[in-house]
Design goal:
The complex is a heterodimer of chains A (790) and B (160). Helices cover 28% and strands 25% of the residues of chain A. With 790 residues, chain A is of the alpha+beta class. The longest helix of chain A has 28 residues. The radius of gyration of chain A is 27 Å and the shape is globular. The two termini of chain A are 47 Å apart. Chain B has 2 domains: 77 residues, Ubiquitin-like (UB roll); 72 residues, Orthogonal Bundle (DNA polymerase, domain 1), CATH 1.10.150. Chain B has 5 helices and 5 strands, in the order E-E-H-E-E-E-H-H-H-H. Chain B has a 5-stranded mixed beta sheet with strand order 2-1-5-3-4, with helices on both faces. In chain B, helix 2 crosses helix 5 and helix 3 crosses helix 5. Classes of the chains: A alpha+beta (790), B alpha+beta (160). At the A-B interface, helix 1 and helix 17 of A face helix 2, helix 3, helix 4 and helix 5 of B.
Chain lengths: 790, 160
């Protein structure tokens, strides 16, 4: 928390828990989501999907579908092939099908689309399309995919002779190997993080509206990155005449994103093609099963994590080898130069002198991906690996996991800290965060209670996770997507009456930008946040930016907002000097007004200055009071925290109950404490979800399980504990107002805290690791094997 | 497809329409009546985003046919505010930061409203049980519980 508030409750700058400006429409049922868009003449699209994970399409019969009154068209790969739109590039310079011409590569892949006058008739049409398939051998396991003789999946790629996608590595392999050879103690742990799905409560969809007369395309769509999407559309469909100045993307209210609404899915492109072909607005809204079965997944990392240490617990080296399953195409949403995202944050919070990590990726017959699941590009995988293997080391050394962490933390005076894998951590105070967590939760008392319970045969565990994130991508010299640098933007216009419209290149999906950005303007200019209208998501009006994901809104657009406001103040000062007939050097700024040094009664408020900017501006100066900033961050930000989880395990069922969960977070300076806590609560629930419940798996034929909410289990209010939160504040030294970003910290930090707690509860039975999700079945099987199940 | 004339009282006003047998209540509300406050989040009656009140009872309107609502009363999120004044359940969600993206919110509001209509002073567990058929991906539920408690306290004060 900012210790001192610079603004009054009326102005409501940083540090105020302002009630959200967006809420009045949501609590009245007046949000405007994509499925609420209704345009004159609008028709509906539904998609025919493959029942097979790998098959040759021998025929598609659409006659019966077209005979249904109200069915207007059936679009297949052959339709799109005429326009060379049947394939599209992914963000990772791979390719994926929009609609297949020859083969399907995963179960639930798009095969054809039916356009009809209403959504029920479109669904009838889908039922009536008959597709003939010739099944092909299915590759499900990425390890088998890389074995010699495995069927080559991407036969579309000339000369491709295997299923290997990429090899990526970071760190010094030789020095790390040597450190391992020299170590007193070495531990190694295989860790699998399965496929999961963000499952935002609103699925994906769009209304594509091609205006034939104007040659203009408007797409209302669920996207976290509207500007980037516009450019991608122009690049994908430029050859059929869709030029970027004639494309408008409107991202309306979004019902949760979490990374799942970053990619361009085939459905969007088919809807656009259908609108161009039919000359009518085409609405496509996924149902939940399509959303879970075909949209981009997250994780699916098979890791082997190794730590080397001295006998006293000093960690000396880290080595992690990963096999990534990307499905049939590498459709990850990473910065282009980072095929494994920011996985190299895997040295975590520890002063590791040597580290090496490598990732190999494979094609399989599964949906393409992967995206983040409320995390900054593979950071969750990295944090899970280091925090889990740290506990494995503690167990090996018979050391308390808190003591081991405290012994190895990067110390506050070491910042800025250069990690062995090349990152420069901006700021941190890891011992303080863990100490606060231990004190708040009563760590020593919990350990005593655990010892007592263990004597009675009860299973109680305490798990710690001391994570470091890497967010806010990113500096343009390293970070781009398809060449577009990962800056972000803000444009502020102060109206004559001192009211503001502010527009941004990001796009809120529930984070509360309409409130927090208004508070930044209020903090910087002293104009009440209530008088600041925030707009995002319309590419015709907002400045260009790369969008909201990877906790980047505050580090990039939030920074741009402060910088743009400061540009406005430079001009405002000149106007104030003119009005006060003083020289600029004699003026001082106090939130909301300039006054003459030593004569505070001689002052001009920002509102008076704004009015003068349009009515009485100095001779030779342009009228108006506005600024825009495209902010290129000098570094990433490194939020961190220490989480402690207490679990009780039922010996009869193997069920894990989270009794307490305390999150101590440090995200630098805070804009709105209420919203930050809300982000942490939600992130914790999305951290608990994959730790205990969620998994998408496939059988040997590539049939999905976890493809609906029947068996893909989101946490309900019953499993979810009452989260406890606390803060330390270590500002980012390079961010304009010292903030770091917070949206994903808890999703990243929570899973290892929970997994460590469960393993801790079973450690005395010789259990060292359990892969997430830690289901009752997994735990019960262990208890049974150890002879302690009731 | 057979058509049926139905008459449904929505937020107290009679609405008449001719609908297909298969039309879901949620589509009747959203597409025939234009009440888009009620959302659709799944196909399997799990998420509760589509919760409305049918004769005062919360139902998932994706699993009720429009024809089943014939002759009955439906209240949606748009019916909570009375005479320009927010209902305490709406105030509670705003005050306690009980929503983020807003997509599950209408269903949560209706479920919370129905709970408080039958139990003026629910415990935390009773609130959690009541909303356990409504999924929220954003809030982690803590503030939703607080929002319902806020509304309960407010309603008890007004009733006293």
């Amino acid at each position: 928390m900012t210790s001192t508030l610079k603004t009054t409750a009326e102005v409501c700058g940083m540090g105020h828990s302002m009630k959200r400006k967006e809420d009045p429409r949501f609590i009245r049922g007046q949000g405007h989501y994509v499925d609420d868009v209704k345009l004159p003449g609008m028709v509906h699209m539904a998609i025919v999907r493959s029942p097979y994970a790998h098959a040759r399409i021998t025929a598609i019969h659409d006659e019966k579908a077209l005979a249904i009154p109200g069915v207007l068209a059936v679009i297949t790969g052959k339709t799109l092939e005429q326009f060379k739109l049947h394939w599209m590039p992914t963000l990772m310079s791979d390719t994926q099908m929009v609609l297949p011409v020859e083969k399907v590569m995963y179960q639930a892949q798009e095969v054809a689309a039916v356009i009809a006058t209403d959504r029920y008739v479109a669904a009838d049409g889908v039922e009536a399309v008959e597709v003939e398939y010739e099944p092909l051998p299915v590759v499900v396991d990425p390890r088998k995919a890389l074995e010699p003789g495995a069927p080559v999946l991407r036969t579309d790629k000339p000369g491709k002779k295997d299923n290997h996608i990429f090899h990526w590595e970071a760190g010094d392999r030789a020095a790390t190997d040597k450190a391992f050879a020299d170590a007193d103690v070495r531990v190694s742990q295989d860790i699998y993080i399965p496929r999961i799905h963000v499952a935002s409560i609103e699925t994906c969809g769009c209304v594509a509206d091609f205006d034939r007369a104007m040659g203009h395309l408007t797409v209302h769509m669920t996207t976290q990155a509207p500007h980037a999407i516009r450019t991608v559309f122009a690049l994908v469909a430029g050859h059929v005449g869709l030029s970027e100045e004639k494309i408008r993307i409107i991202s309306p209210d979004i019902g949760g994103g979490f990374g799942g609404k970053v990619p361009v899915y085939p459905g969007y492109v088919i809807a656009v093609a259908a609108s161009v072909v039919l000359g009518k607005p085409v609405k496509w809204i996924e149902n939940r099963m399509e959303n879970l079965q075909a949209d981009s997944f997250a994780r699916d990392y098979h890791m082997t994590a190794e730590l080397a240490a001295k006998r006293d617990g000093t960690m000396t080296a880290l080595r992690i080898k990963t096999l990534a399953d990307h499905g049939y195409a590498d459709a990850a949403a990473n910065p282009s130069k980072f095929p494994a995202g920011l996985f190299s944050i895997c040295t975590g919070s520890y002063d590791l002198k040597h580290a090496f990590t490598e990732v190999d990726a494979a094609y399989t017959n599964k949906p393409p991906g992967g995206i983040a699941y409320r995390c900054s590009f593979r950071v969750t995988e990295a944090v899970h690996a280091i925090e889990r293997v740290t506990d494995v080391l503690a167990q090996e050394l018979k050391m308390d996991p808190a003591e081991l962490r405290l012994k190895n933390f990067i110390q506050p005076e070491q910042f800025p800290y250069k990690s062995a894998l090349g990152w420069e951590y901006d700021s941190g105070n890891y011992p303080a965060a863990l100490a606060l967590a231990m004190k708040t939760i009563g760590y020593d008392e919990l350990r005593r209670e655990q010892a007592e319970k263990r004597r009675r045969g009860e299973l109680m565990g305490i798990g710690i996770s001391s994570f470091t994130e890497i967010v806010g991508a990113g500096p343009s010299k390293q970070f781009d997507i398809l060449g577009i640098k990962m800056f972000d933007s803000a444009e502020i216009r102060v109206h004559p009456t001192g009211k503001v419209i502010a527009r941004f290149g990001t796009k809120s999906q529930g984070q509360g930008h309409e409130t927090t950005y208004a508070q930044i303007v209020a903090e910087e200019l002293g104009i009440p946040a209530a008088h600041v209208q925030v707009e995002e998501g319309d590419t015709d009006t907002a400045p260009y930016g790369l969008g909201t994901y990877a906790s980047r809104s505050t580090p990039t657009s939030g920074a741009a907002c402060a910088v743009a406001a400061r540009k406005i103040l430079v001009k405002a000062k000149k106007i104030a000097a003119h009005l006060l007939e003083a020289s600029e050097e004699d003026l001082e700024w106090e939130t909301g007004k300039f006054f003459v040094k030593g004569a505070p009664q001689q002052a001009k408020t920002i509102q008076e200055i704004a009015f003068a900017a349009y009515t009485n501006h100095p001779p030779g100066m342009e009228a108006g009071l506005e600024a825009v900033d495209y902010y290129d961050p000098p570094n990433l930000t490194f939020p961190f925290g220490s989480y402690i989880c207490v679990v009780d395990i039922d010996r009869g069922t193997g069920a894990v109950r989270i009794r307490r969960f305390l999150a101590v977070d440090d995200c630098g300076n805070i804009i709105n404490p209420m919203i930050v806590d809300g982000q942490i609560h939600g992130g914790l629930a999305m951290g608990m979800a994959p730790a205990l419940l969620e998994e998408i798996s496939y059988d040997d034929n590539g049939n999905i399980s976890g493809g609906s909410f029947m068996d893909y289990l989101l946490p309900t209010a019953m499993e979810t504990p009452s989260w406890e939160t606390a803060k330390t504040v270590t500002p980012s030294p390079h961010h304009p107002f010292g903030a770091k970003g917070v949206g994903e910290s808890a999703t990243v930090g929570a899973p290892p805290a929970i997994a460590n707690a469960v393993v801790d509860a079973l450690a005395h039975l010789g259990v060292r690791h359990i892969d997430i999700p830690i289901t009752p079945e997994k735990v019960w099987t262990i208890l049974k094997a150890k002879g302690v199940a009731e | 497809m057979a058509m049926h004339k139905i008459r449904v009282k929505v937020q107290g006003a009679e609405r008449e329409a001719e609908v297909e047998s298969r039309l879901l209540l949620v589509h009747f509300l959203r597409e025939v009546l234009g009440l888009t406050g009620t959302h659709i989040g799944c196909d399997t009656t799990h998420c509760g985003a589509c919760t409305v009140l049918l004769d005062g009872q919360p139902v998932k309107s994706c699993t009720v046919l429009a024809v089943q609502a014939d002759g009955r009363e439906v209240t949606t999120v748009e019916g909570l505010e009375q005479g320009g004044k927010l209902h305490p359940i709406q105030e509670g969600f705003w005050q306690e930061h009980g929503l983020q993206c807003g997509f599950c919110t209408p269903g949560m509001l209706m479920t919370g409203y129905a709970l408080l209509a039958r139990n003026a002073d629910p415990s935390e567990l009773e609130i959690r049980q009541a909303i356990s058929g409504n999924l929220c991906r954003c809030t982690g539920y803590v503030n939703i519980v607080k929002a319902v408690q806020h509304a309960a306290a407010k309603l008890r004060t007004t009733a006293a």
